[in-house]
Amino acid sequence: MQARAVERRGRVGRWGWAGSGAKGDGSGALGVPVVLVYLGFLGATEMSDQGAPLSNGDYWQGCVLSHAAGTIPEEAWEQRYETRDGTSFVPRILSVQQPLTAARVAT
Questions:
Q1: Which ranges of the chain would DSSP assign to H, the alpha helix?
Q2: Is residue 102 predicted with pLDDT exceeding 70?
Q3: What are the two backbone dihedrals, phi and then psi, of residue 29, each rounded to the nearest 5 degrees?
Q4: pTM of the predicted protein model
Q5: Alpha-carbon torsion angle 42, 88, 16, 40, nearest 10
Q6: How far apart, in whole angstroms, are the C-alpha atoms of residue 35 and residue 92?
């Protein structure tokens, strides 16, 4: 199986899993509100061995939309979807600047 097909199945799988968690139709799904978040950490220089750190939220959103193109329509993001029983599912693209501080270990 080609890597691209596996990636695509992974994205669709996350959406499907999130949607089935929200389903409250008696099918054995959880029936709980779900927010599926693709979270990007801005300026994470400690991860620079994986590539250049994300510089801003717009750049992160562009990365996610580009990666999902052809699988998840751009207009599908940031929408609230409701199941028949009113349980909601919301896919979001978010970013945050989270500085790391040195941890102190008690001796």
A1: 3-22, 57-68
A2: no
A3: -75, 165
A4: 0.67
A5: 0
A6: 7
